[in-house]
Amino acid sequence: MAETIFSKIIRGEIPCHKVYEDDLVLAFLDINPLSVGHTLVIPKEPAATLDQLSDESAAAIGRVLPRLSRAVLAATGAKDWNILQNNGVAAHQAVFHVHFHIIPKHDDAGLGIGWKQRNFDHAQGKALAAQIAAAVKG
To answer: How confident is the model at residue 7 (pLDDT cuts 50, 70, 90)?
Structure first.
């Protein structure tokens, strides 16, 4: 994996406003926030996209995301928030190290989402569900 700004933050070469750290995970405030309290949660393991992340690091992030979300909400007074995670250029990933955004929603500040729903074909859905289930089994 290519060197990223997150690699340098993990090593302490670039300072951050740390809110949480353990052996596998680091969380810190985003310096280009969408709202007050916008927090980044990253694995210390180098992986560009979520599918490349080990089960151990993925589980570690899953364990702390709820706790960090509660802490961000308590500290900011926000009641609503988004968790965002992007994979790849077309999905708007800018830093190629897995990261999750905790983005509090404050009135007009926070994440804006356009959601273009499409029609669902049940026959295609049945076939696709079977393909995905087979891929999960390996």
So the answer is: very high
Q: Quick one: CA torsion of 42, 45, 46, 47, rounded to 10 degrees?
A: -70
Owning domain of residue 98 = 5-137
> How many domains in the chain?
1
| Residue type at 33 in one-letter notation | P
Nearest 5 degrees, angle CA 96-CA 99-CA 101? 130
Give the Cα separation of 132 and 124 in Å (integer): 12
Which positions are catalytic? 99
Tokens of 42: 């990253």
Sequence-distant (6+) residues with CB within 8 A of 104 are: 35, 36, 37, 38, 72, 73, 76, 78, 80, 81, 110
Question: Which H/E stretch holds residue 41?
Answer: strand 39-43
**Strands (E) located in 44-124:** 80-84, 100-105
| CATH code for position 56 | 3.30.428.10
pLDDT digits (tens, 9 = 90+) for 56-104: 999 999 999 999 999 999 999 999 999 999 999 999 999 999 999 999 9
Instruction: Specify the pTM.
Output: 0.88
